[in-house]
Amino acid sequence: DSGVTQTPKHLITATGQRVTLRCSPRSGDLSVYWYQQSLDQGLQFLIHYYNGEERAKGNILERFSAQQFPDLHSELNLSSLELGDSALYFCASSVRMEGEQFFGPGTRLTVL
Amino acid sequence: EDQVTQSPEALRLQEGESSSLNCSYTVSGLRGLFWYRQDPGKGPEFLFTLYSAGEEKEKERLKATLTKKESFLHITAPKPEDSATYLCARGGGSNYKLTFGKGTLLTVNP
Prior knowledge:
The complex is a heterodimer of chains A (112) and B (110). By secondary structure, chain A is mainly beta. Chain A is built from no helices and eleven strands.
């Protein structure tokens, strides 16, 4: 158990809908990262927050957004969902802005 | 662009048969080389961080090593419970992200 929690574990929804994925980092970690994992693309970096501020964006679609709250938990919002958004979404946390990251169990999103 | 290439894509071993997994990466601006283990449907589990050429780290049957342009994960006398996908990731660049390879799927048969 890494200490990073993610909810929900599974999410099944329809195209065009909007969902919110939630992540709580390890106690004391200030950085939260979001990754998407699909079979053909592997683990892809989406976005990084450090102590409430957005620090970097990766391959994140404009339909996706995230935020980190004062208690350091983070939410990833996915809107206007398409079939291709079906994937595993992982949150990771770290103490600093770089170094080893510890991953949560993931949220499996299925868009029908 | 940061790149990480892992080989082989899949490896099947008999229990006790030692082997190595390879990870090659973009050298420029490297700030750490990371190894993770991932079981099906689960989050990656952190194994090792390496920062300098010549550095080695060990954990049970696993040993990670780093050269100037490659990293190796050596598995000594593997057991079936070592079966998993092993991911290598490169740290660096201006955004602190990890760039992951596509992984090596290791299967250890009893």
